[in-house]
């Protein structure tokens, strides 16, 4: 009888397919399909080269840096010129993308002006508090398709304006701490090793409302069984269709 009640309470939750976010900070598939690049998101800014400050083999403009598909060696941060502190002189930088370059850590000394940081498809294994320190304006963080197994407690506190977090396709075995107290509205956790979800992982204890409600939570393709998740886990999510659950692949 108890299992039947839990199933009915979760009946409104969608687990049929991947969640597709379409909001203020969603620049994913639509941009790629239309040929819009990150520099097109700032049409009022002239595409002036950053000159000698631009890391070797990267493409730089006034507010945008892209260092992708470089096939770097065993010490990619050093060999590419994107080692720690490489971006400190770029005071107005808003967007950094370092994808598929084999880097193993988040570069330190990133400028506080950043609003988007994309480090997808690398070999990063851990997110610690120091790596996100000072990123007070960061709104979107993409860390999908890495090897991340740990997100240290307190890491997300260094990004108070973060709204969208992508940690899909990693090696996490639990939901990162700090989501319940944060303003994050979209969090991708699909294709990880999460085997259990606690009732306070996403929402504050009790039935208090979160500072900002989620518009997207993806948990499909994890070992956790959706019927084992307590209905109260998503008590601060007002649109149930925003939650994506599903069986382990």
UniProtKB/TrEMBL annotation:
This is Decorin. Belongs to the small leucine-rich proteoglycan (SLRP) family. SLRP class I subfamily. Binds to type I and type II collagen, fibronectin and TGF-beta. Forms a ternary complex with MFAP2 and ELN. Interacts with DPT. It is found in: Secreted, Extracellular space, Extracellular matrix. Its main location: secreted. It comes from Sus scrofa. Residues 1-16 form the signal peptide. May affect the rate of fibrils formation.
């Amino acid at each position: 009888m108890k299992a039947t009640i839990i199933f009915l309470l979760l009946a409104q939750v969608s687990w049929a397919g991947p969640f597709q976010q379409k909001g203020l900070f969603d620049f994913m598939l639509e941009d790629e399909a239309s040929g819009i690049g990150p520099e097109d998101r700032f049409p009022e800014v002239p595409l002036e080269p950053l000159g000698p400050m631009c890391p070797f083999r990267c493409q730089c403009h006034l507010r945008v840096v892209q260092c992708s598909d470089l096939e770097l060696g065993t010490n990619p941060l050093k060999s590419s010129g994107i080692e720690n502190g490489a971006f400190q002189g770029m005071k107005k930088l808003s967007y950094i993308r370092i994808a598929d370059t084999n880097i193993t850590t988040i570069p330190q000394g990133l400028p506080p002006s950043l609003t988007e940081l994309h480090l997808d498809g690398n070999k990063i294994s851990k997110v610690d508090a120091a790596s996100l320190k000072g990123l007070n304006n960061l709104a979107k963080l993409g860390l999908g398709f890495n090897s991340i197994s740990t997100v240290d407690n307190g890491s997300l506190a260094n990004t108070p304006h973060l709204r969208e977090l992508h940690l899909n396709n990693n090696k996490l075995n639990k939901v990162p701490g700090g989501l319940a107290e944060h303003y994050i509205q979209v969090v991708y956790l699909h294709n990880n090793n999460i085997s259990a979800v606690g009732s306070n992982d996403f929402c504050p204890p009790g039935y208090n409302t979160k500072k900002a409600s989620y518009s997207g939570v993806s948990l499909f393709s994890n070992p956790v069984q959706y019927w084992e998740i307590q209905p109260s886990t998503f008590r601060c999510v007002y649109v149930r269709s925003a939650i994506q659950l599903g069986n382990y692949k």
